[in-house]
Amino acid sequence: MAKIKHNNLLDTVVSVMTNAKESGALHLYAEGDSLNGRQIQIKGKHLYHFGTTGYLGLEQDQRLKQGAIKAIEAYGSQFPLSKSYVSHPLYAQLESLMGDIFNSPVVITKNSTLGHLGVIPSIVDDSDGVILDHQVHWSVQSAVNPLKLRSVPVEMIRHNNLEMLEDKIKKLQSRCKKIWYMADGIYSMYGDYAPIKEIMQLCNKYPQLHIYFDDVHGMSWKGENGSGYVLSVLKELPDKVVLMGTLSKTFGASGAVFVCNDNNIHQRIKNFGGPLTFSVQLEPASVGAAIASAKIHLSPEIYTMQAELGERINYFNECLLKTNLPLITVNDSPVFYIGAGMPETGFNLVNRLMQSGFYVNTGIYPAVPVKNTGLRITISRHNQKEEIKALAEALEYQFPKALEDTHTNLDRVNFAFGRFNKNLDRQIKPTSNLKLETYNSIEHIDPELWNNTVGNHGFYDWNGLKFLEKIFRNNDSPEHNIEFFYYVVKDENERCILATFFSYGLWKEDMLAPESVSLKIEKARETKPYYHTSYCLSMGSMITEGEHLYLCQEESSWKEAFNLLLEQLEALEKKLKPQFLILRDFDPQNTALKSYLHNKGFVQIAMPEAAVYREFDWENEVSYFETLSKSSRKHFRKDIEAYKDKFNIRVKQTITPGELEKSYALYLAVKKNNLGLNTFGYPRALFEHMNSSPQWEFIMTYLKEKDMLQVGVMFCYKNSNNIYTPAVIGMDYEFSREYNVYRQLLYQTILRAKELGISRIDFGLTAGFEKRKVGAQVKERCAYIQTKDNFALEALEWLRKG
To answer: 197 lies in which domain range?
Structure first.
């Protein structure tokens, strides 16, 4: 029944990055005739370079340059032949040197992405399982994805959560020969480390556990012979651990290196590693440069370079720790992350630093949650102490100005990262004459004000919300308890600029996921009923559908009104600590609102289509038929009119206890069979209230040839603004398809609304195709969300791919 157009993650990423590009923080071009590592020229301005991943500065070392030049002169610009046939003359020397660095057998790959794509599907057997840290690099996750086609179970854990890791190991150990845990040695955004010692303790505890480390950001600047962060902890590579390092980034050349001590795995990869077998090998210049770098790594000089970098890292830490800047992780890695919170704050700060003479990277979604946007600053041996100090001073000076420009403060930034939230309730100095009014019950709001703004839709007019507050309170089941919050923003003339309501309650995380995902999760919920559920702070509520926000975008002050709302919501988040903040249901074509909310740290996701019926300019059923399109008329004759005489239709204001019991059972049948919009079931008390309220009525459908068996019911609300809302439906699935019960209920709803003199039917979400066929206007809808981290979204995405 429900046909939902699900969100494409790529569309969201492109949209967020487009905003970053338009702000001047992304997709820039370096200029000039040469590079020296210390400075970079962008838009005609020479900037000190604090964005490199070449932490030791080896890419500018003359020995590497000469190694590349000599290799080109001797062997040409490339050696266009697969390594499976013939490796060019320098390969054997490079493999030997890299083996010496790691003291283990190695395989050289074109780059780490191709390395993962070649290695992971080769070392993971069909009888194995995989567990991913949800922040492991995209290239690892991409290489794991094809394993699902081979029915390899793939699980995901929250970042560095060893308790969750052990739970997943226990879950897989009875069905998997090997369990591969895949993580980064050092994570590229925040510069934090994997808890390697603790992971190895789990390896000792669970013989099936094997580890796959991506240590490309730990290479060269750490470890004996620059063998990386992982080996700096392990000292020697255990047989149950495999490692992917890099010959680019800090190593200064190009390519990647796979390392393992398991001879069977090593030979398997070397003999046939998918793209490693069929891809053209590294260019002679890359191999020549890598050989020169490897020789440096095998000399005492590498330790001098590591020490010089360490001094710069320590100095930058000292400079930053004297400030009030939100440094997210403090350790000895060359990666520093300064939190900005909202994307617009991060973009503003990046541009301010460029104007001050410094280039740094922007940390942005999907590498981090949207509201965890920040500056990813890297330190290299190119950076001198005077410019490191100058950068810290520029950050300290420009950071508060960026906050002021984007109407936020340090408390809100810290709160976005879960840090130092004591002063979040401090208000930002108002920049307009708008005032925000907050309420915890609809009864404290003027009914006329509410019904002329937000309440002009669905069954959340003043009376509807009054009864919802009563029903969703003091219930035994956690999902049936909801807190309501109301907000009104007025100008100095008491005109309403913004009005909305929010609810706080337990949601299923797969509410808007594809039906295939919900089917898998519902299977798990048979034993764990609250699996993949989270508390959410949502505009509207789980039970309501439609336009929950009244916003006068014609007024120049609408953004300021929205700013006041978002600030108040952050204060509420501090108290309630929801996993998700959700704004819904919006027109995705509202580009001004979309741009505004992206800059405020919200990600757009698609929602089911909404349907509204307004075409009541007809006198009878014949003239109604004439309002339909040609294709819809054909549909009407075949699927609705042909079955009409088989039904007995009754509209009832109240029903007997037996009829209520039957109607509730029909609702539960729809709930069970329609996972396109997967929510918790509504409490029985809701339906009992419907039966006692004059604003609710029931369209009952009975089959004449089945002894007047009730096979359908539409629970309909009569809004105070002459709007009719078929809010809940129930059907008997034994007969629904044979008699087209759903389509008949849609048609009978239109007839009933006409009889009542209704001006509009709010048909709500899902089944847009069916509603369009009876003359409803269907519109795309979207939501905007913020989340504490990307784990839940990424975990659902993995279930979708599987």
So the answer is: 76-297
- Residue with the two structure tokens 């005492």: 300
Q: Is the pLDDT of residue 304 over 90?
A: yes
Do residues 355 and 211 both lie within one domain?
A: no
- CA 386 to CA 399: how far, in whole Å? 20
Q: What's the CATH code of the domain at 121? A: 3.40.640.10
Distance in angstroms (rounded) separating the CA atoms of residues 50 and 41:
12
Measured N-to-C along each axis, helices 343-355 and 9-22 cross at an angle, to the nearest 10 degrees, of 30
pLDDT tens-digit readout, 419-467: 755 444 444 444 568 999 999 999 999 999 999 999 887 778 899 999 9
Between 81-90, 312-321, 620-629, the lowest mean confidence (pLDDT) is in 81-90
Q: Is the dihedral of CA 653, 656, 660, 663 positive or negative?
A: negative
Q: Residues 381, 243: one domain?
A: no
Q: Are residues 361 and 219 in the same domain?
A: no
Query: Could you read off the pLDDT of 641-658 as tens digits, one per residue?
Result: 999 999 999 999 999 999
The DSSP output letter for 505 is: E
Are 30 and 122 in the same domain? no
Three-state secondary structure along 187-243?
CCCCCCECCHHHHHHHHHHCCCEEEEEECCCCCCCCCHHHCCHHHHHHCCCCCCEEE
Does residue 66 lie within any of the structural domains? no
Closest CA to 388 of 37, 45, 38: 38
Domain count, the chain: 3
Is residue 671 domain-resident?
yes
SS3 585: strand
Do 313 and 277 share a domain, yes or no?
no
Between residues 367 and 336, the one the model is more confident about: 336
Same domain for 318 and 218: no
Where does 260-364 have alpha helices with state H? Answer: 263-271, 275-278, 284-297, 301-321, 343-355
Q: What is the pLDDT of residue 608?
A: 84
Bridge partners, 605 (sequence order):
783
What's the helix, strand, coil split of the chain in %, to 5?
A: 40, 20, 35
55-83 as b/e, with b when 16 or more CB fall inside 10 Å? bbbbbbbeebbebbebbeeebeeebeeeb
Sign of CA dihedral 53, 56, 62, 64: negative
Annotate 192-209 with b (16+ C-beta within 10 A) or e (fewer): bbbbbeebbebbeebebb
Q: Token pair of 290, please?
A: 């890598």
Query: How many other CB atoms are there within 10 angstroms of residue 399's CB atom?
Result: 24
Same domain, 191 and 138: yes
Q: Output the CA angle 285-290-293, nearest 5 degrees.
A: 130
- Domain CATH for 647: 3.40.630.30
In a domain, 359, yes or no: yes
Nearest partner of 740 among 770, 778, 776, judged by Cα: 770
Domain assignment of residue 524, yes or no = no
The Cα 614–Cα 391 span in angstroms is: 60
Nearest to residue 455, comparing CAs of 718, 671, 187? 718
What is the end-to-end Cα distance of the chain in Å, rounded? 23
Last residue of a domain, which of 375, 390, 416? 416
Place of tokens 């009978």: 748
Domain boundary among 243, 264, 297: 297
d(CA 552, CA 561): 9
Query: Do 28 and 80 fall within a single domain?
Result: no
CATH of the domain at 307: 3.90.1150.10
Task: Kindly state the percentage of the chain with pLDDT values over 90.
Answer: 74
Name the more confident of 303 and 420.
303
